[in-house]
Each structure stands twice: as C-alpha cells, then as structure tokens.
Amino acid sequence: MRIISGLYKSRKIVAPKNLPVRPTTDMAKEGLFNVLNNLYYFDDISVLDLFAGTGNISYEFASRGTTSLICVDQDFGCIKFINQTAETFKMPIQTIKSDVFKYLEKANIQTNIIFADPPYGFEDEQFFLISELVFKNNLLLEGGLLIIEHSKHTILSNQDFYSYSKNYGSNVFSFFEIK
C-alpha cells in the first residue's frame, strides 16, 4: 500500500503478511479522498478509524494534515503495526485495542469523520449496528460523516441517515449523515 498525497506522498508501507486484513485499494482510497477533499480541510478535523486493520486510511489522513486520529481494532498485531508505523513517520495516531461494537457502545467522543472498514463477510445486521451505534450515541460532530466501506454485494441504502454511495471497482463507500 502507498500513501496517495500529502507530506508522505508516494511512501510505501508494507504490512506483515499475517495480519487479518484487506487494505483499501489505492484506486478506491484516491477516489474517497477526492470526495473528502471537497468537503473538509484535513488539518481542521478529527477522525475515528474503525476496524483500522493496517491503518491505511489513517496514514492518508495524517499525511494530509489531520492531527486528531483514533484507530480502533481488536487484533493486537494490527494495533502493534499501526503504532510502529505511526512512530516511524511521526504521525499523531492514537490506537485502541477493542472490539469495535463494544467501543461504540461506550465511546464518549465526537468527531468529524468516522470511517469503518469491517470485514466484507459481515451480516447485514452487523453493518446496520455500526450506523445505529454511531447515531444513537451522537458520535459525529455537526456536519460530520460516517463512511462505511463494503463490497458491491452489500446494500446499505435502506439504513437511517444514509446519504449516498460511491463505487470504485469492487469497493463501495456508503456515506451517512444527519440532514
């Protein structure tokens, strides 16, 4: 994986092969950040990265100037890798090793962007629970977005607060917001 833009543009990051992850493709990540670039000044926002995996999305935010980043993942290897990478590049990333659903139930924060990249094999109810917990617990700041990455076989448009989706190959980003 590589960082698309910003301070660390073109830097390659190689994750250990034994991590249980499916990093967002560079093409999909570039498309997502083209959308976000028109909505936010990256140095003015806070980001919560759920099911963070390798930290791929958070590295892109950090490279573009975001200084308030929290990564949540339940896998110790993923958290260790994110911490090592953040330290290497001096990125302001905080990690939390936790089950994402338990974290969302107890979280006492508000943020501009919540990005969730759960396993593509999740059942619809698990995808629905992400948005339900985010909005029930008021975790987004005014004007904030919940973005869920999923496969083209998962349909999230029937959920509350759904706004729109963007497709990039087999990756889909569904955007949720309070209107």
Automatic annotation (TrEMBL):
<dbReference type="InterPro" id="IPR004398">
    <property type="entry name" value="RNA_MeTrfase_RsmD"/>
</dbReference>
<dbReference type="InterPro" id="IPR002052">
    <property type="entry name" value="DNA_methylase_N6_adenine_CS"/>
</dbReference>
<keyword id="KW-0808">Transferase</keyword>
<dbReference type="Pfam" id="PF03602">
    <property type="entry name" value="Cons_hypoth95"/>
</dbReference>
<protein>
    <submittedName>
        <fullName>RsmD family RNA methyltransferase</fullName>
    </submittedName>
</protein>
<keyword id="KW-0489">Methyltransferase</keyword>
<dbReference type="GO" id="GO:0032259">
    <property type="term" value="P:methylation"/>
</dbReference>
<dbReference type="InterPro" id="IPR029063">
    <property type="entry name" value="SAM-dependent_MTases_sf"/>
</dbReference>
<dbReference type="GO" id="GO:0008168">
    <property type="term" value="F:methyltransferase activity"/>
</dbReference>
